[in-house]
């Protein structure tokens, strides 16, 4: 399935019937009762039993699933209830050492870097086909461990996962250097070589998609990998690692270690035999990763970090459409998106109308068991994030922002939060400055374009921005004035495989996806050879 914008796929999934799926997952979903809207009942109804078995909880090192060197495990949870669903191998420095040694041997001595690019592409394509074959199980496992709506995972994220690997498979045999003219009798060529062993650390909000953003370009370029999954969501990375084995990936090329950041992530970032590190997560942790990489072997680092993205609604906007798009930009994935449109700037002439309609849309949002048909919002990832969001809501109330709706917990178990809307938000309030990472919409008022550009750019972040206007001149002015890595005009969260993604300022270093992501995993070597009596120069 070709990659399309997540908003389109999600909208389609929410309106489709369960007949679009097959097998046990569809049967269970179709048996679930439709939930009430924005009510405690939505979070307290009888929960659906996930239609998938947890079969992989060990590390994958050198082609084998193995226990942690220490023998320790840590719990993986169901955020719908807070209950333990699995015990997963808990990695530490010794497990990282074993995984790096396997990756190094696979790179230095194994067949992967020496394999033709065409053969590597065939393995990536076989993996993408296996993802499509097992999409229902993967979507169910992602929902069970993460809490995101099953329909979102199945109809938006799994097709994108397969599309990303089809995309990078296409790049594998198109990576090449250049012949460079020079002054003098020399033949100069550049070689684009794999960088070596790549350390990769992925977050918990989009475990499968972030796996693809990291693993896809690294493998296409011929590298080997040690990947550390997020400690909150270790299960799907292990599942797809098994699929890579089925696709024919040689042992040691992809190694997956589960564990905490300080005990597994830090040893990976500081390892002297890792040639490159890529990290997605918070800005504060990104600083630590960068320091560890610099203090060890000065390995290059790619960082995709936090955001506080402005979503600017101009006075000429179609308000009904703008309300729906701003709602999606903030509340998608329980608000747990680094690029969420979390500062909604609305022109003063349409501000009051927008507030009333934004409040009405939030009240109608369907919150509940993410396995149930029609649910738009599941629980937050864990208790830590749940409490963090509630603290920010209290901070918004204490700073005299107007609480239009929401603001509390839904139900008595799990990590469900009411969709929350604040109006009369000021730039100096915490809810307007900090990355909340939850279902909290902050709506601010502006008078003119110069003002909103100044205020939108007055942040340490620069990951993304949204612009909603019917005027092409306004759109052109704002897209060039906003200091952000992505600006969506009259749309949001468009994530095609070919579109680069990354941030300005403290939102990161480098770009993911598209041709730009390949640069992260290649070294450029210049080769100079003298020419004797050349026919031409």
From TrEMBL:
Q: Which InterPro entries match?
A: Ald_DH/histidinol_DH (IPR016161), Ald_DH_C (IPR016163), Ald_DH_CS_CYS (IPR016160), Ald_DH_CS_GLU (IPR029510), Ald_DH_N (IPR016162), Aldehyde_DH_dom (IPR015590)
Under PANTHER family, the record lists: ALDEHYDE DEHYDROGENASE-RELATED (PTHR11699)
Keywords (A to Z) from UniProt: Oxidoreductase
Regarding protein family, the annotation reads: Belongs to the aldehyde dehydrogenase family.
Signal peptide stretch: none
Which one Pfam family would you cite for this protein? Aldedh
Report domain Aldehyde dehydrogenase positions.
65-527
Where is the catalytic site? Answer: 304
> What is the gene called?
LOC103338326
What protein name applies here? Aldehyde dehydrogenase family 2 member B4, mitochondrial
